Amino acid sequence: MKILQASLCVISLLVILPSVFSASSSSEDFDFFYFVQQWPGSYCDTQKKCCYPTTGKPAADFGIHGLWPNYKDGTYPSNCDETKPFDKSTISDLLTSMKKSWPTLACPSGSGEAFWEHEWEKHGTCSESVIDQHEYFQTALNLKQKTNLLGALTRAGINPDGKSYSLESIRDSIKESIGFTPWVECNRDGSGNSQLYQVYLCVDRSGSGLIECPVFPHGKCGAEIEFPSF
Questions:
Q1: For residue 143, which of 59, 221, 225, 34 has the smallest C-alpha distance?
Q2: CA 203 to CA 205: how far, in whole Å?
Q3: Does the annotation count 118 as an active-site position?
Q4: For 112-156, what is each residue's pLDDT tens digit?
Q5: Active-site residue identified among 119, 128, 185, 226
Q6: CB-hemisphere CA count at 13 Å for 198?
Q7: What is the pTM of this model?
Q8: 65 included as an active-site residue
Q9: Which candidate in 28, 113, 118, 123 is catalytic?
Q10: Which of 12, 39, 194, 196 has minimal CB crowding within 10 Å?
């Protein structure tokens, strides 16, 4: 009888342990976030056209692109939970801020919901071990307000006036303002000139604070880049 009871205990442990290890693994499913903001003037000033949202032309300010879970080796998880689709009702209290701070510029014109749906389902679902859907969007909005990239640049005399500025001065002015090193992504305008497109900042797993980036994305800007108007 004792042998049988011992065997049953071992079997019970074998059944329980995988689920414990699985839960532990899912709670460590990424290392940090990239918080990515884009300059609308550079999105639109390319050979591809842009379309303003149905609510009208966005403000001349950096807009949120996304909050992306990432691994320290430079890879990232995506589309992690098909059972948790985007649900507009969960962020009903954030919609006014979302339209202002997270506008879509894709064609055809839209309300932004398709953009937010894409970001949640591709990236947000991979952060569910830490933050839920409402917290995901709220966190991004908070980070935008906290970082104020345009303010950091204009205080340093770097303005969206179509002129060229050194990449080093752009990085340094942002770092001086927020205390952490950004990564700058460039694209090219219709004439092939390199221009300031997106700024990446890194955020800890909880989404509560900026950190120095463990790894930067791949890509290259010129030493001098344009900052187009919008």
A1: 34
A2: 7
A3: no
A4: 999 999 999 999 999 999 999 999 999 999 999 999 999 999 999
A5: 119
A6: 19
A7: 0.87
A8: yes
A9: 123
A10: 12
